[in-house]
Amino acid sequence: MWWVLVACVIGGAAAGVVAPWWDNAVYYRIVVDSFRDDDGDGLGDLKGALKQISYVRALGADAVILSSLTAKSTDCSKPGTVDFSTIDQRYGNWDHLVGLVEKTKKLELKLVVTLPLQTVSTGSEWFVSSADRANGFEDRIIWKEGTAEEMPAPEEGIESWTWHETRKAYWASSSDEAILNLCSESLTATLSVSQCAWLKRGVSGVLLRLDFPRDQRCGEQLLRRLVADAMSCVRSAGLETP
User: pTM, whole model, 2 decimals?
Assistant: First the structure.
């Protein structure tokens, strides 16, 4: 089951007040990888999106949803996100994102960025530290105790279990990426910091995408916490709301 939620940089509307912009906006989704390549490396980037964004407005869009920009592994054997708080350098940098934000504001377009929150690369610090049972990281990944000779029984939403020799346990995987433990308080706190980093760059909101392979209750609590923390981030940073 996929859950999608937009945590927007705006306060709740009281009864009788005009509905918030996201209720009736015409959205245009940009897959940055394939939208427009500015530097000629064959991969779309933020500078390319900046050059093409006026075209999107001309089509009648009110808001743009960017595909995930988070830093990803360059190791094909360990795919997935390695840092939720950083832009993948193949797309550009923070200055390029801020430039796009400023352009969309001039065009009266809302800009929303996507944060995929269901898995992480096995080459990431999160996974390596969790495997080492480092303080604050130990439960960020779904682990299952067992022995190398006896694999855990299949579970709904978990593609496979993989033995980790250092931890002496199995980790849950999906498409060779480690599945995050949505019940982890440490995970929740860190994701909150990550989304705040994006909001502080002036985007109108974040699109939180996560799968509930299990522990739906924890997933719903995580979403509620991230929405509340997004508002706190906006207020504490003194950001202008629409």
Answer: 0.89
Q: CB-side exposure of 178: number of CA atoms within 13 Å?
A: 30
- Collapsing DSSP states into helix, strand and coil, what is residue 29? strand
């916490």: which residue's tokens?
Answer: 225
pLDDT digit string, tens, across residues 157-212: 899 999 999 999 999 999 999 999 999 999 999 999 999 999 999 999 999 987 76
Extents of the domains making up the chain: 2-10+22-133+181-237
Domain 2-10+22-133+181-237 of CATH type 3.20.20.80: yes
CB 223 within 8 A of CB 195: no
Tally the residues of the chain: 242
For residues 40 and 47, what is the distance between their CA atoms, to the nearest angstrom?
Answer: 11
Detail the DSSP E strand segments found in the chain: 2-8, 27-30, 63-66, 70-72, 81-87, 110-116, 119-120, 143-145, 160-164, 169-174, 177-179, 205-211
Count of Cβ atoms closer than 10 Å to residue 106 Cβ? 10
